[in-house]
Design brief:
Rossmann fold; 12 helices; 9 strands; about 350 residues; two-stranded parallel ribbon; alpha/beta
Length: about 350
């Protein structure tokens, strides 16, 4: 596909887990692509996309001048950038950057996009705008009820995009993303199980939605290219539901390990989580297991993606079961090469 300069696509958050894969796909298609990259990552371009050359704009979504330069001559913006705090550290509030980066940064980008005459705008959002967990199968009609700084900032970003009536916009909300590379929850589970640090979770009937990285890229490009997506918000999933115990079993199978026949009762885990919360409050230092970790382990996060399938013909190509062998092989090879 050959593109004129006015067909230029701007990708924000390009050096993140999803952004790297999205830009690689665009470059493979010979799509003229510009990336907005923070100064600290400016020297990583050749390593991130070897043999390929996106247009690079050094800047930040919190800097109006760099946004103006990034939007100049752009036809479509694929907006992935948001605050991604590092691991929690003593004395540092990991939520502090969500509002200025994710909410205000999106508002500023929308304003510069309008000024520059950008035609299409796709926001990559999160199911966290609807709350971190539900066993009821939430969909796009569910009332947003974010309970975290991240979810509230993402919801504000969505509202900023919807209010820009002169932009042809679409929004996609993502659940947990898995695939090769990155630090997804599944990748962390693989490492922990292989090292013997992750005991089998209890057999709860929780329901969790997820999606493969490659299918996320396909979903974002569908929203950018299909007129049926204009003005709409979608949830993208791989169409499957997983219990944590099933995920654990599948990871063990991919690792070639037997699943232990025991599992700690949920009541024990709740006591351990309460103790973890208390230790964090008293010491000011994060602990490996607290109430948030427990919720990820036994709680539900079920989201319905049928609307995107129905409207756009979105067809996920991957499930966790088919992806795990490749993820395990990649992580083992990465450790050997380290």
């Amino acid at each position: 596909m050959h593109s004129s300069q006015r067909d230029l696509i701007l990708v924000t958050g390009a050096t993140g887990y999803i952004g790297r894969a999205l830009v690689a796909r665009l470059l493979t298609e010979s799509q003229a692509t510009r990336v907005l990259v923070r100064p600290a990552r400016g020297n990583d371009i050749a390593e991130l996309w070897p043999g390929q050359a996106p247009h690079v704009c050094i800047g930040d979504v919190t800097e109006t001048a760099s946004l103006r330069a990034a939007c100049a001559g752009v036809d479509t913006i694929l907006h992935l950038a948001s605050h991604s705090p590092r691991k929690r550290a003593p004395g540092i509030d990991p939520s502090a950057g969500h509002w200025p980066v994710t909410a205000e940064g999106t508002r500023a980008l929308v304003g510069e996009a309008q000024r520059a005459g950008v035609r299409r705008f796709v926001l990559v959002s999160s199911v966290w705008v609807m709350g971190e967990g539900s066993a009821d199968g939430l969909d796009e009609s569910s009332i947003p009820a974010p309970t975290s700084a991240y979810g509230r900032a993402k919801l504000a970003a969505e509202e900023a995009v919807r209010c820009a009536s002169d932009l042809q916009s679409s929004i996609v909300r993502l659940p947990s993303v898995y695939g090769i590379g990155g630090e997804s929850l599944v990748s962390q589970m693989i490492s922990a199980i292989e090292r013997g640090w992750f005991p089998p979770p209890p057999k709860t009937l929780n329901k969790r939605s997820m999606i493969h990285l490659d299918d996320v890229v396909a979903a974002v490009l569908l929203l950018a290219r299909r007129p049926e997506a204009l003005g709409k918000t979608y949830i993208a999933t791989d169409g499957k539901l997983y219990t944590t115990h099933e995920i654990y079993q599948n990871v063990c199978a991919a690792l070639g390990r037997r699943v232990p026949h025991w599992a700690p009762p949920v009541a024990w885990l709740r006591l351990a989580a309460t103790a973890g919360d208390w230790l964090t409050r008293c010491s000011g230092r994060p602990v490996p297991f607290d109430s948030l970790a427990l919720e990820k382990l036994v709680g539900s996060a079920w989201y319905r993606g049928e609307r995107m399938v129905r409207d756009l013909g979105f067809t996920p190509r991957h499930t966790l079961c088919t992806a795990l062998p490749g993820m395990v092989a990649f992580q083992r090879e990465s450790r050997r090469g380290a």
